[in-house]
Fold:
Amino acid sequence: MHHSRIALVALATLAAVAPCLLGACSPRVVSGPGAAEGQASQPGASDQATAGQKTAWPTVSDASPGDSSSGTWPRDSAPIQAAVEAALAGHSGSAYVAYESVDGSTTGFSLGGEERVPSASMIKTVVMATLLQEAQDGRISLADGTILRGQDRVAGSGVVQGMRAGTWLSYGQLAAYMIGQSDNMATNLLIDALGMDAVNEECQRLGLADTSLRRKMMDTVAAASGRENYTSASDQARLLLMVARGELVSPEASERALGWLEDQADTRGLAQGLPDGVAFAHKTGSLDGVRHDGGIVLGDHPYVLVVMTTGMDQGQADALMARVSTAVWEAVREP
Structure:
């Protein structure tokens, strides 16, 4: 298993048990960017047909306040929020932010996080979640797949559109391309296999009230008629937090999702604001005037950060997200 994932599990375990050890709770059992629906189009996304090493992922229960050697548990996130607000000061357009602590060491917050915005390629995270749930329930297998057809090709980001008609790809491979390369054709093939209704039902089941899939990728006719895909920073943070805590479908499914997200090819935006070598499992999205990024920052005190922007060009949005990312990274580490 990737060392960053081992560290994430260990920290989540510590977060779950520390308040109880200190008498603060009762014992519990815990478990390329652009305007084309995506980003980079570099080959290299891959998937393992079988699940990787099994890990006993703990979930982090609602942390109860209590004294600890490092202060109050959880620590108030007000300083982190203040740092984000300072980073956002003076920007053009609109920005929406959601923050969550994976290990429960700080409280979460949002700044306009419940605002519904066009999702761009971040809708692909809920397609991923639906695929994993359907596989868990036995209605589909990641080892099954489909044959590529010429009529399924769509433009925009991705590498599948460049593959020869007649090529067979597993659903697991398509999911890896969908997340890592933001592949539009792979996404549409998965929507065909799952059904749009199943994706929207999974959004409801997961409590993603602001998220809906209403059209396929690059469906300009549907978009022109007003059928758009929507999500919010808070919804994406909720989903990513489930992945980070091993609570999305199952620990094994969460581990797989984390691997796909870690293979993200688009390293602009939030990733630019992190120090070299910091593991970041995330998904980005872009449309004209829309740029989003959200993911899980791994390591000490792991956290989820989602920033969604509208009304900016991509360069402005990426620079703003990088500033926010740096501000959060530094504030989380303040004593």
User: Anything to note?
Assistant: The longest strand covers residues 94-101.
